[in-house]
Hints:
This protein is mainly α. The protein is 48% helix and 5% strand.
Amino acid sequence: MMRDLQGIENTSNDQLQPLLRKVLDGKKYLLVLDDLWNEDRQAWLGLQSLLMGGSWGSKILVTTRNRSVVRATNAKSVVHDLLGLSEDKSWDLFKKTALVDGEETLNPSLKEKCRDMVKKCAGVPLAIRTIGSLLYTTEVNEWDGLIDGELSEIDKSESGIMEALKVSYDLLPSCLP
């Protein structure tokens, strides 16, 4: 199936639709649509009609953080809400990611700031790893400045994940090797 889709980089949506229909026609498939944000019901209905040609047993797996997307897809099957990590597991993940060999050698004040920052990640592993990796590449004596500065923008809302990623992106060196 993937062979049939090679060389489509510069193809318009109007050209892609019949190609997708042809590739999927009569075949059993698993389509994974990851981290979706499109709440447009009409767009979902259009996509649904494109995917109807697959054989019985074909499945679509959608991941999203947005309940409105779930409603727009008109999902007929089970919706699984993933829970975040516990505070203890979040802290363990942070230590493994941010500290050399996961060793906890932080002074009490900095440790408390780090714990508060990890709590703001709301148990989301991606956010915890992103911040931990950022701090790992920074000298521990510079952590206070980062935590009180750029990382202070992170909150527990759904946008907190995006804020963590944005801070990490903003702090990338301007010239990568």
